Amino acid sequence: MVTPRKLTLIGTGYVGLVSGTCFAEKGFMVTCVDLNTPKFKALKDQGIIPIHEPGLEELVKKNVAAGRLTFTTQYDEAIPDADVVFIAVGTPQDEDGSADLSHVEAAARQIAPHLKGYTLIVNKSTVPVGTGAHVEALIRAANPAAQLDVASNPEFLREGEAIEDFMQPDRIVAGVETDAARQMMAGLYKPFTDAGYPLFITNRASSELIKYAANAFLATKITFINELIALCEATGADVLAVSKGMGMDARIAPRFLNPGPGYGGSCFPKDTNALAKTARDHGLTLRLVEETIATNHAIKLAMAAKIEQAMGGSVKGKIIGVLGLAFKANTDDMRDASALTILPELMTKGATIQAFDPAAMGQAKQLMPGLTYADSVTAALKGADAVVIMTEWNEFRALNWQQLRPLMKGNMLIDLRNLVDPASAREFDYTGLGRIVQGD
Question: I need a surface site. Which of 108, 356, 416, 422 has the fewest CB within 10 A?
Answer without folding.
Answer: 422
